[in-house]
Write a structure and sequence with these properties.
It contains 2 helices and 2 strands.
Length: 82
């Protein structure tokens, strides 16, 4: 079992912003900073890549104003990246 203590990701609405002139979307500075910090936590753990199926359990502090799905996407994306 691998246990990682990652920082809380930004809310889903703060991950990306619209570029001017309808030219798409880009990562927000807040999301980029979180990705760098979370990536450092993963690198420090020095785990080898996992081949095959995995089970991910996300434990987070309850925030009645935030949808739990908003925690999963950035965390799963950073795990895939690293």
């Amino acid at each position: 079992m691998i246990v990682l203590a990652l920082p809380t990701p930004p809310p889903t609405n703060n991950l990306f912003f619209n570029l001017p002139g309808r030219k798409g979307r880009a990562r927000s500075q807040e999301y980029f900073a979180w990705q760098v910090t979370a990536g450092q936590h993963i690198q420090i753990a020095r785990q080898k890549p996992i081949d095959g199926p995995v089970r991910v359990c996300i434990i987070c502090q309850e925030n009645g104003r935030r949808d739990l799905d908003g925690y999963a996407k950035p965390i799963l994306d950073i795990l895939v990246r690293h």
